[in-house]
Amino acid sequence: MKKYLRELPAIHLIQKDLRFITLRRKKRITLQKLTEWAQYEINSIREAIIDGKWQDGILSKEDFENYIFKKLEQKSDTFHQNNLRRVINATGTILHTNLGRARLSEEAIKQVVLTARNYSNLEYEIAKGIRGSRHKIIESILTAITGAEAAMVVNNNAAAVYLILRTLAKEQEVIVSRGELVEIGGSFRISSIMEESGAKLKEVGTTNKTHLFDYEQAINEETSILMKVHTSNFKTIGFTQSVETEKLVKLAKQHDQLLVYEDLGSGALYHFEIGNEPVVSEVLKKGVDIVSFSGDKLLGGPQAGIIVGKRELIEKLKNHQMARVLRVDKMTLAALEATIKGYIQGESEQIPTIRDILLPLSEIRKRINIFIDGISQNKDNWKMVINEGTSQLGGGTMPGVEIPTLVVAVSHDQLSSQQIFDRLRLGSPAIVTRLKNDQVLIDLRTVTEEEIPFLINAILHI
Ligand SMILES: *Cc1c(COP(=O)(O)O)cnc(C)c1O
């Protein structure tokens, strides 16, 4: 053992090695950092030798050096790779929660960059030369598109739920149907958020049936809100009954100070050809006092929670201390304003989420042809089969809705589906595909034409 330890290179010799110098220069790593990594590798080898766990075959001075430099090379590469990085989404799931939900429109990206690079009037009224409010940046455009009296934006829709209940129902009762208490991805439960707000949750009805009289019977002098949650994350199929918004509004009117709040989750700004997500302006027309929805679901904008409704209520929310805690950044406002302007100008097909949802099969077929043509030079080992399939919206939006698509089932004569799936994922950029029934499926609905070469390249280099 001692003999091997003696062969371990000293740090000052590693530092003098040409490979060390080249790494420093080529990968732009500081002397201190690279020395630290080299020392760490030397120490790890020493410990492994002493513990008798060192790998066979690497025992000479030269072997040790080669091993250390291989490690340093790998470390330098990962050091420059950002933790948050680009992924090619070949799953066809448009609002993939794990992959960052909505992609922004070019106009939104332009505004984000402009706002990031320069000073802006975030809290400054240019016309008057006085301090302004960031709420003003986005309010008029939101009221214009939804017909609401007033509007504001917070960090996300979960924050919107929290702020609304905290401000308008703290220590009071909020009546909500059991069938609507949804769990959304990860560990987010709407009921937990409600409890955190300090509002007392009063669940009525059963998971599949809630009637108007369930709400009626639950109302007392402590009740402040009748809440409706749009159950977008799952679909109760079959024998179900929920109470329509109009009826809740009518019931609330019979009581003093009773509000109706609808958490739409996704919230469409216009009617869609597919699915039947409620349209925000229509929900407001029914007389609902306050509505909240996400900025990065169906809307196709940045992560945000949008709150619209009666002016008096929105003013209360804006003035609550928690509004400061939950407020959004200027880049979010820049992206949101540009996205909503896209709708107002009738250019919603420029918004990637909308474009991808409405993408015709002919366009998907065109992408498939480009993709398969690119592989053909090496098609001996690969097999590509085009099948009919379905794309999902994702993000808990329109759960029952499946959009017809075409998928490419990719297989190789020497690799298992799992191996193909893993190698595509571990490449650069990472490519996420669907692994279903031991088949790798590629849905090009969510892969732009510019991204197809990455896919071809990745497959040719597996
Ligand atoms: C998605 C969703 C939320 C949470 O919205 P985020 O923007 O993800 O915070 C809350 N309520 C409902 C009904 C939802 O669908």
Structure in words:
By secondary structure, the protein is α/β, with parallel strands linked by helices. It folds into three domains: 2-77, no CATH class; 87-96 and 356-460, Aspartate Aminotransferase, domain 1, CATH 3.90.1150.180; 106-349, Aspartate Aminotransferase, domain 2. 43% of the residues lie in helices and 18% in strands. The protein has helices spanning 2-7, 11-16, 18-27, 31-50, 61-80, 106-117, 134-146, 157-169, 190-196, 212-218, 245-253, 280-285, 311-319, 321-325, 330-344, 352-358, 361-375, 417-426, 452-460; strands at residues 87-89, 124-125, 130-131, 150-154, 173-177, 183-184, 188-189, 200-204, 223-229, 259-265, 290-294, 305-309, 382-392, 402-412, 430-432, 434-436, 439-443. Strand 10, helix 12 and strand 11 (290-294) form a beta-alpha-beta unit. Helix 3 packs parallel to helix 5 (61-80) and helix 4 (31-50) crosses helix 5. The radius of gyration is 28 Å and the shape is globular. Residues 156-158, 161, 182, 184, 190, 229-230, 232-233, 263, 265-266, 294, 305, 396 line the site of pyridoxal-5'-phosphate. The modification N6-(pyridoxal phosphate)lysine is found at residue 297. Converts seryl-tRNA(Sec) to selenocysteinyl-tRNA(Sec) required for selenoprotein biosynthesis.
